[in-house]
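Why should sequence recovery work at all? Because a backbone constrains its sequence more than one might expect. Tight turns favour small or flexible residues, buried strands favour hydrophobic ones, and helices have their own preferences. The token representation captures these environments compactly. In the example below, the structure is given first.
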């Protein structure tokens, strides 16, 4: 009987850790200023003169499919009133010196949790690195200094589904059968 319970325990642990995964590629923030929160990854938070800015990558795609054009989301959390942002001043610079700008233009006021999605007419390739120059930030009439982050492409694996319910069902049915 002890062996049966041990086998049941091993089966429950194995089933509960089972998952479905997807391999993907996505642009990634490789380097940021020293004051940035977080390390390399799909998102990083920066504090620029009292304004917290989170840069998030939105161009994830399953591995083996074409690489989409670069898409980023900037999420703002100002520490005070009076901040504004012009997305048309953000520059994406390739290693060869070419530059791309986001389509939107014009200053807009920033409020807590405001976000702006930026799309560029190019992709961050697997071998390439690009610099994103965050410009167009202001507090009142004073422009804030631009901040540069470096982007590259990386591969990863995401867990899409955990089979917890199936594992619980097997354990309960096995426990009921064992009695």
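From this structural description, the recovered sequence reads:
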């Amino acid at each position: 009987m002890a062996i049966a319970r041990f086998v049941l325990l091993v089966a429950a642990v194995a089933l509960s850790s089972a998952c479905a995964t997807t391999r993907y590629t996505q642009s990634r923030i490789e380097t940021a200023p020293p004051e940035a929160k977080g390390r390399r990854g799909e998102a990083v938070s920066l504090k620029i003169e009292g304004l917290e800015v989170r840069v998030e990558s939105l161009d994830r795609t399953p591995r083996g499919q074409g690489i989409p054009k670069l898409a980023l989301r900037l999420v703002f959390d100002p520490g005070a009133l009076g901040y504004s942002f012009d997305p048309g001043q953000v520059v994406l610079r390739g290693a060869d010196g070419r530059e791309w700008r986001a389509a939107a233009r014009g200053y807009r006021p920033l409020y807590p949790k405001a976000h702006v999605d930026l799309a560029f007419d190019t992709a961050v390739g697997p071998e390439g690195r690009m610099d994103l120059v965050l410009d167009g930030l202001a507090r009142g009439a004073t422009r804030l200094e631009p901040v540069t982050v470096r982007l590259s492409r990386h591969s990863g694996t995401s867990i899409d589904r955990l089979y917890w319910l199936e594992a619980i069902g097997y354990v309960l049915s096995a426990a009921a059968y064992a009695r």
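A few observations help interpret the result. The longest helix spans residues 2-16.
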